[in-house]
Design brief:
Structural class: alpha/beta
Number of helices: 29
Strand order of the largest sheet: 1-3-4-2-5-6-8
Helix content: 55-70%
Number of strands: 11
Radius of gyration: 30 Å
Shape: elongated
Strand content: 5-15%
Length: 715
């Protein structure tokens, strides 16, 4: 199909998106479509850009630009956020609507799910009201055929007046016809396409308004569509119209008079703003239904028996929550079991490289303090973080992404929607919370999918109540040493995973509790409804999942951790090597914090380790070992038996271990997460609150547990 590709960066989206044309003849093509129809897969196949494609609604929250050549014609593709309608009800839908209406693309490709065409035609019909240069792409034809669905594309094309192309996005060869159609449609002059006929009062009102709008705007954007939206009185669209057409257009005397006349026609027929929207929506649905008559035939029910059987288990009231619990335990078991050996190998390699650095410094006759600071301080901290973080993330992120591709995450949101509704929050928060298991900073960024500002703040402020990948090493080490045994067998690993799952469940429970408390005090409000589609279970693209999770998530998160670990290594080295009255600053600070730490069942060394671990939680345990061993650099004490002996020799008890686990689970987020919170909220107040909430919860729980242990005799 003559396709070559390379990609540009991702741009933030509004109707004024800056498109950098390399050649004057480049055509701009917008890709629109419902969530879960393979739109981003089509985009990736055409441009070669490896954009993340999630199997749940609202994943694409910004535009991506990519370049390709369609039949020799250079094109810029714009991947719009997934949207069900251009009558926007969410931020994603506003973004897509604004670009289609005011971004002046040369063509629009509407990607549809061939297995549920009637529902997808709603967006097609609205796109046709804006532009006649539309190509309808019936994607997922392989799934439609498996369900016994047959579509007469030629008949549908004839009825719509635009090209209709069948594709399977994963198969690049099937996109040849789409690229040809896109190339031809960009050269097409204005022609007659299918338009929805609305009830007589609506059409009469439009007739009074369209001529005036046509005169004032010259038909850009489409006068009929603009007339419908003005009658709809959509505030967000009126704001965009002011931005693109100017305040003078809305204040124009002729436009105002025509709008008043059209509104009077509707009111005379008993149609107010609310009923007007209902009429427009019902007309679109009816038109889509009529278009599909004789076009779509079905040999068997669209909802497959396999999906029904799985959903009977995974979304049922009886089995849904146990299935989530067991699935999480299984993922953690795979992560713990699979990460042990790679972590050790990576640590051995990195610390052997440290010896090479030491030899190089000595060859240069560098001062000993410089070698100690840079190699034993900065490099050792970075090496520790990489060896501890990389293997678990390289296992957990791909497993998590597999669940995403298979279609389980929407089921997770469905199961947790009711608990979040009881907390006066949005069910989409479940998806952000799930992302937080990998990295709380990523979870905070993922909160953009929540439309309500109040509910988005709730999700941001409580995301750190679930442990991120950086806290897992602490939790796994303590659970294994004190509660799961140290034999290293598969049974021990599974018991550790089970106990870790119970610990995480406590974090989820605290998320619900704090969300409820905030929603009835500081962030009062009524929970909003949202559209959640349960896509069919799909076979994941394992190769794509591995590449995507490694580069988009694992290395990205690891890179941020390493950046903040460098200054942390310097601070730790200075505190461990600078003395005052014969005592290091590290032990002086630990001694000062010790009285307060004892109230929590901890000691001053543990508390100072958490403070120094602010840049990255992975260095908390190494700092504790370094302080206990009275060494000036981070130290790995050896196997689990050595760790337990070291901790017990410094006064650790059952109470200390449990308090340490509780405080590891609930304390201030890392620096990367707090920077992300500030970036998302643009508020110092909310950032401080995001740090104080989990910290207060951790301190209170530790003090409560320690008090109980001191009262009860068997502790």
């Amino acid at each position: 199909m003559g396709l070559t590709s390379h990609s540009t960066g991702t741009n933030a989206l509004d109707s004024g998106l800056v498109i950098q044309r390399q050649h004057a003849e480049e055509k701009v093509i917008a890709l629109a479509g419902n969530p879960n129809v393979g739109k981003s897969t089509v985009f990736n196949s055409l441009t070669g850009m490896k954009q993340h494609t999630g199997n749940w609604p609202g994943k694409t929250v910004a535009n991506a630009q990519g370049r390709c050549t369609c039949e020799g014609q250079p094109c810029i593709l714009i991947d719009l956020p997934g949207t069900y309608s251009l009558m926007a009800h969410s931020a994603e839908e506003e973004i897509a609507r604004n670009f289609l209406c005011f971004g002046n693309p040369d063509a629009v490709a509407v990607i549809c799910d061939a297995s549920c065409l009637e529902r997808n035609l709603n967006l097609v019909l609205q796109a046709l009201e804006i532009s006649s240069r539309v190509v309808v792409c019936l994607n997922l034809m392989d799934e439609a055929e498996k369900k016994g669905i047959r579509i007469q594309t030629e008949l549908l094309s004839k009825r719509l007046g635009v090209p209709v192309i069948s594709t399977i996005a994963r198969n690049k060869k099937s996109l040849s016809a789409l690229t040809r159609a896109l190339c031809q449609i960009t050269e097409k002059t204005e022609s007659s396409v299918y338009h929805v006929v609305y009830p007589e009062p609506v059409e009469k009102a439009l007739s009074a308004l369209i001529p005036v709008i046509q005169e004032k705007t010259g038909g850009q954007p489409d006068s009929r569509w603009l007339a419908l939206r003005l009658l709809d009185s959509d505030d967000s669209l009126l704001c965009e119209i002011r931005s693109c057409l100017g305040e003078a257009f809305l204040n124009d005397k002729d436009v105002k008079n025509a709008l008043e006349q059209a509104s009077a026609i509707l009111l005379e027929a008993g149609i107010n703003t609310e009923s007007f929207r209902d009429l427009v929506t019902s007309s679109l649905i009816t038109a889509a239904e009529k278009l599909c008559q004789d076009v779509v035939t079905m040999e068997q029910p669209a909802y497959q028996f396999r999906d029904w059987k799985l959903d009977r288990i995974l979304t049922s009231r009886l089995f849904g929550y146990p299935a989530m619990f067991l699935l999480l335990a299984f993922l953690l078991w795979l992560t713990i079991t699979g990460a042990n050996y790679p972590s050790q190998v990576l640590a051995d390699f990195l610390f052997r490289f440290q010896d090479l650095l030491t030899a190089w410094f000595r060859q240069l006759h560098a001062p000993e303090w410089l070698h100690s600071m840079l190699v034993l301080g900065v490099y050792r901290v970075v090496a520790w973080i990489v060896s501890v973080m990389l293997p678990p993330m390289a296992i957990f992120f791909p497993l998590f992404t597999l669940l995403e591709d298979m279609g389980y995450l929407p089921r997770l949101a469905y199961n947790l929607d009711k608990p979040f509704q009881c907390c006066h929050a949005c069910g989409k928060q479940a998806l952000c919370m799930a992302m937080g298991f990998g990295c709380n900073a990523a979870g905070v960024t993922g909160c953009r999918i929540i439309d309500s500002e109040r509910e988005r703040l709730l999700a941001i402020l409580t995301n750190s109540f679930v442990p991120c990948n950086g806290r897992f090493p602490i939790l796994i080490t303590l659970i294994t040493v004190f509660f799961a045994g140290m034999s290293g067998s598969h049974g021990t690993s599974f018991l550790c995973a089970l106990l870790l799952t119970l610990t995480i469940t406590l974090g989820i429970g605290m998320t619900f509790a704090v969300t409820w408390a905030l929603s009835v005090t500081l962030l009062r409000g009524v929970p909003s409804a949202f559209t959640l589609e349960l896509p069919p279970y799909r076979r994941p693209q394992i190769g794509s999942v591995i590449v995507r999770s490694i580069f988009d998530r694992t290395l990205f998160v690891l890179g941020r951790a390493v950046v903040v670990a460098v200054p942390a290594g310097l601070i730790i080295w200075f505190m461990a090597n600078i003395t005052w009255s014969g005592t290091t600053l590290l032990h002086l600070c630990a001694s000062a914090l010790d009285p307060f730490a004892r109230l929590m069942g901890l000691d001053g060394v543990i508390l100072i380790a958490f403070l120094l671990g602010f840049p990255a939680n992975e260095i908390v345990m190494p700092v504790i070992f370094m302080a206990y061993l009275a060494q000036g650099t981070l130290t790995e004490p050896g196997d689990l038996a050595s760790i337990k002996a070291l901790l017990l020799s410094h006064g650790w008890t059952f109470t200390t271990a449990v308090s340490m686990i509780l405080f590891s689970l609930f304390h201030w987020p890392c620096s990367t997460t707090l920077l992300t919170v500030h970036k998302e909220t643009n508020s110092l107040r909310w950032t401080v609150l995001a740090a104080l909430l989990p910290t207060a919860a951790g301190i209170c729980l530790c003090m409560l547990f320690t008090g109980i242990c001191r009262i009860l005799p068997w502790f």
